[in-house]
Specification:
Blueprint (H helix, E strand, L loop, with lengths): L2 E5 L4 E6 L4 H18 L4 H17 L1 H12 L3 H25 L3 E2 L6 E8 L2 E5 L7 H12 L3 E5 L5 H13 L7 E3 L7 H6 L5 E5 L2 H13 L3 E5 L4 E5 L5 H13 L9 E7 L3 H13 L19 H16 L3 E4 L14 E4 L6 H4 L6 E7 L2 H9 L6 E5 L3 H10 L4 E4 L18 E2 L4 H5 L3 E8 L1
Parallel strand pairs: 5-6, 5-8, 6-7, 8-9, 10-11, 10-15, 11-14, 13-14, 15-16
Antiparallel strand pairs: 1-2, 3-4, 4-18, 9-17, 12-13
Helix pairs in contact: 2-4, 3-4, 3-6, 4-5, 9-10
């Protein structure tokens, strides 16, 4: 299957890239091993200098990279510019803090000297998604490279120009040949790479189904993996909440990236005391969103990234409505070229329906009503996923109740769930395992070596 750029705004095929052959894959693996032997001994200050140069290119040419993202997957241009700038931030963050995060740690024992060291593993395979085609890559690559590893990236087949651009950025920054390599390979090639002794670990951001496949193959070959998978994040609103702020962030969280984000709020769990007021304000804001050309800075919602994504979302909504759910706004395809779906709000959602049990990857919000914090918690945790959760309350004891009991890797109180280079990010249950970002992220793909001197 070739890599293809299809403009999601028009449906027009713009570019086709054929997968590389086995000989090219072998050449890249060989180059990665050779480069690792040098890079692992490269001083931290030189690794940091490279990441700073990469950050400068990302920031200076943010509009250029943004236009690629918008062209290939339909992200609104303002969000795409912000994504490029956030990538610059994560590069600078690890350039500035990586050496300290990986410094040897003395430990008091009965030995003359004991310490823990953090040493790189080797070539790492990354399997990356299309929805944040730059950020997902850089949040893995920046810490992995700062730790002394080298990386090979199999990007999503619908963003080949973004995939190639990232390799070009590292080359422009003066990275050693083989430090960062893009792999235009078929999915069927991935198991062979995971079985190759030269690949020392792997990370995947994507669906739970893909995560299971990668974890199983890596497990057979005893390879460390980090998985960031799907989510069906709850957004809980209690009576004491600042409703105006909660509604504004709720719409932002559900609709960001055209609704195509693992950590977007997807299930809005409303205490009955404020449900009517929240629902009315939420629907009003959704109706006011501008749907259109993602290159227009005035656009709030662009197309979904591909036709199959639009069709899957439409099916999920249709099945949910057929089972008895009510549509408050939207609920249909838009009659225009491209892969557009109307911003949608559903309520009265029956158990067992897609809007209750599955991840809806698009601009569709599901509203639920509860009578107590205990009922809110039970509904929030009633999902196979456990990525993020947002809680809105001005009661400290209530906030602590949810923080302590929500089954999620990230809990935000009175705020938008988001990734931040300074904080670890990841999920539990079917949302994956391991952490990216923060000090925890840079220590995922290292050998935590105990040293004891008698």
């Amino acid at each position: 299957m070739p890599f293809r750029t299809v403009n999601p705004t028009t449906g027009e095929l713009l570019l086709t890239v054929d997968p590389i052959d086995d000989a090219a894959v072998e050449a890249r693996l060989t180059r990665a091993v050779e480069t690792f032997q040098v890079w692992r001994r490269t001083p931290f200050k030189d690794r940091a200098a490279l990441l700073h140069r990469v950050a400068t290119i990302l920031h200076t040419d943010a509009e250029r990279w943004a236009r690629l993202m918008t062209l290939e997957m339909g992200k609104p241009i303002r969000a795409a510019v912000a994504e490029a700038q956030k990538c610059a931030w994560v590069c600078r963050y690890y350039a500035d803090h990586g050496a300290a995060f990986l410094a040897p740690e003395p430990v008091a024992t009965d030995a003359r000297h004991s310490e823990v060291r953090y040493e790189p593993l080797g070539p790492l395979l990354a399997i990356m998604p299309w929805n944040f085609p730059f950020w997902q890559v850089f949040r893995f690559a920046a810490p992995a490279l700062m730790a002394g590893n080298v990386v090979l990236v199999k990007h999503a087949p619908i963003v080949p120009q973004c995939a190639q651009a990232i390799e070009d950025i590292f080359r422009e920054a003066g990275a050693p040949e083989g430090l960062y390599q893009n792999l235009f390979i078929e999915v069927e090639t991935v198991p062979r790479l995971l079985a190759d002794v030269r690949i020392r670990g792997a990370t995947l951001t994507g669906s739970t189904r893909a995560g299971r496949a990668v974890a199983a193959e890596a497990g057979r070959n005893i390879k460390k993996t980090v998985l960031e998978l799907g989510g069906s994040d709850p957004f809980i609103v209690m009576p004491s909440a600042n409703l105006e702020a909660a509604v504004a962030v709720a719409v932002q969280s559900r609709m960001l990236n055209n609704g195509q984000s693992c950590i977007a709020a997807k299930r809005f769990i409303l205490h009955e005391a404020i449900a009517d007021e929240f629902e009315a304000a939420f629907v009003e804001r959704v109706q006011a969103l501008t749907v259109g050309d993602p290159f227009d800075p005035a656009t709030d919602i662009g197309p979904l990234a591909a036709d199959y994504l639009r069709d899957t979302l439409a099916r999920q909504v249709e099945e949910t409505v057929a089972a008895g759910a009510r549509v408050l706004v939207g609920g249909h395809l838009l009659d225009r070229p491209g892969f557009f779906y109307a911003p949608t709000v559903l309520t009265d959602i029956p158990p067992g329906t897609p809007a209750r049990c599955e991840e809806l990857f698009g601009p569709v919000a599901a509203l639920f009503r509860v009578a107590s914090r205990e009922e809110a918690l039970a509904l929030a945790n009633d999902t196979p996923y456990g990525l993020g959760a947002s809680v809105w309350t001005q009661n400290d004891a209530e906030a602590e109740f949810f923080i302590a009991n929500l089954e999620a890797g990230n809990v935000f109180v009175n705020g938008l769930v988001k990734s931040d280079p300074r904080l670890p990010f990841g999920g539990v249950k079917a949302s994956g395992y391991g952490r990216e970002l923060g000090v925890h992220g840079i220590r995922e793909f290292v050998n935590v070596k105990t040293v004891w001197k008698g």
